[in-house]
Structure formats: structure tokens, C-alpha cells
Amino acid sequence: MTTGEVIRRIRKSLGMTQTELGAILGYTQPAISQLEHGGAAVHDVRVLRRVARALQVPLAILVVDSDEEADVKRRQFFKATALGAGAAAPFAGAPPSFGAGSAGTSASVKVGAGDVTAIKATIQQIRELDWVVGGDRLCQVAAGQVRAIEQLLDVGTYSDDVGRDLTSAAADMMTAAGWIYFDAGRSDESRQYYARAAQAGNASGDGFAVAQALLNASTLATTGAISYGASARPREGIRLAEAAQSTVLRQGGPKLRALAALREGVAQGAVGDKSAVAAATSRAHRAYESSRGHDPDWAYLPEVELNALTGIAYMAVGDHRTAHIHLQAAIDSQVGGPFQAHTTVRLAQNHLKAGEVAAGCALLSRNFEDIHDVASTRLHTIVSGIATDVRPHAKVPEVREFLGQVAEAV
């Protein structure tokens, strides 16, 4: 995506009109329109800084080409704090012990509960941005945030309670970074972030943070069995999901218990266990309707995602009729953005696996522009894999149209 397209997507995701954004910036509506369509101002970093502040996003999300790009990528973007300047080396072994910051050094910074709250707000903001622009544009920002939190752990001074919360936040940010790198098709970095997140969660005594890292690692291990361009280790995915549930089932609330069951269900589908998929998805939907337990802030599972993950589990195990029902229900919710694009591609993939080549390609063709706009290497790898699979059917009109769109987009 161009910088202008990113600005437009984020503005619309906030429910803001061009006129409203212009009023905040002191620009006219036509000026905002020109900005979103690649006008000269889109290359002015000073303008982009103002736009980033108005949209409450990191500047690195907006910058595409600039003499300052390298410097921008090194900045640490905290929404409400100036802490974290500079970059720290990754953890070597366990994270530093609580309260053990370098009080006697000039780099020392006092860290309080308010700073941890600001960090958590930034983590949530990055997760929300992934739903708007896709993971490819967020890797540098997420990596910078991890380094910034590590810097605070290394040189900050803080109480034991703040240290525990800060280490827990580090685990949360590492898992968010892992997902973004996964979405960007960078599996090795993703796996490393998840391992470090589990380590930090253990160090802080945050079982939920450990469970989150394990569940995401389960998805990473399983994805190659239902996608393209990734190694497949579905039995490892099952083990990781089951390990996460030891914490989730004791303490987790409806969304977290449902999410854990769905992750297991997808992994079970990848190994072809139909009864295990039915049991896991049934357990997920029962948990979702319950009120027992507590959900951490990151346990975001709207009904549309519940349906999508259920559909993916059934697609993996070959029950294409049930998969279609759930994937179509998710698409009908009209969430838009990367999630809508990913789910549409999954439904098309389900058509193809069911032998409905024309229907799958027709669906991709109708939504090709929206799919192509998403900055997700993971998504585009799936689309490229589908194109390879359907090429032998190029005489079918729907297939020919889809392949033509793919060729033009290269």
C-alpha cells in the first residue's frame, strides 16, 4: 500500500471523514483527498508527523519513502511516554530480576505504574493496526517496541510490583510482535518472539501471558498444513495448544477458553482427526456462551473470529460443508480490512478443496482488489499457492479471470 492508502484505511477505521481529519490538521477536505491520493504533501515528513498524531498511530506506519526513513524506524513510539530512547540487546537468558535496574548509571530511568499502563495501551494499538493495515508494515514498529521495553527492564529502576508488570507487558509485546512477523511471512523471527514471550511470562508469573505465547506458537506450527510457504508441524501445534489449556481451563474466561479450544481444533484438523475437531469446536462454542472465569485484555475474540476459526478447523479436516457455513457467516458480518480479506481467501480455499474450482476463483476475482491491498505476505502467499494449484484448470472462465488478475498484480 502507498502512504496515502494507509492514511485512508486508518482514517476510515476510526470512523473519521476527510473533513473531520482536515479540521484536526487545519487542512481543507480537498487537501486531505489529495494526501490520500498521493499528492506532493505525502512525501513531506513534517506533514506525516502531524497526520500520525491526529490518527494516533506511529509515524513509521505512514512513512514509505523518505530521507528520514532509517531514523524513523529506530524511534521508539510510545503513545503517552517518552521513556525507552535507544535500543537494548535482546534478553540473554532470563529477563532481569525485579527492581534490579541500574540506579547508579546515567541511563537509568524511573519506571512507574503509569508507564506500564502506557505500554499496554501501545500494545493494544499495534494489535488494532494489524487489523487495519496488515503485518508487513508493522514489523519495524513492533520490533522497536520490544527493544524499548527491554531497555526499561535493563536500565530502569522500579519496584518489585512494577517489575513484574513490566516483564508481563514485555511478554505481551513479544507475542504481538510474533504475530505481526507471522503475518509478514517471517516464521523464524515469529517463533523466536513466542519463545521469548513464554520465557518472560514465566519470569513474571503471568500464566495468561505464557498461554498466549503457546497458543500463537500453536498456530505457527500448524499453519503449513493448511496454507502454503510454511513448514507443517501440526502435532507440535496440538501439544502447544494443550499445554496452554492447563492454565486457560483453570483461570480463563469465555473468550480465552474458546480461543484455546479453537487453536487445538485447527491443529487437530491438520492431522485429520474429525472427532477431535468436533469435540474442540463444540467446547469452544460452549465456552463462548458461558460466563465463568476471567479474560485478560488481549483475549479478543469477536463472534466473527469465532466463526472464522471454526470454519478453518473444519476445512482442515475436510468437512467442507460445515466449513462453508462458518466462513460465510464470518464474511457476512462485513468486518472489512485484513480480517475480511483473510476469511474470504479461506472460503475460496475451502471451495477449491471441495473441488469447486470455479466458485473459489470467482470469489477471489470479485474481491481481488481488497485482498491485494492488504499488506500481509502470509495472505499473498496463500493466494499465490492457490494460483499455482488452479493453473491446470485455466480453460475454466473463472479460473482464467483470476489468473489474469494475479498476473497483472505481479
From TrEMBL:
It comes from the Bacteria. InterPro entries: Cro/C1-type_HTH (IPR001387), Lambda_DNA-bd_dom_sf (IPR010982). CDD domains: HTH_XRE. Residues 7-62 form the HTH cro/C1-type domain. Signal peptide: none annotated. This is Helix-turn-helix transcriptional regulator.
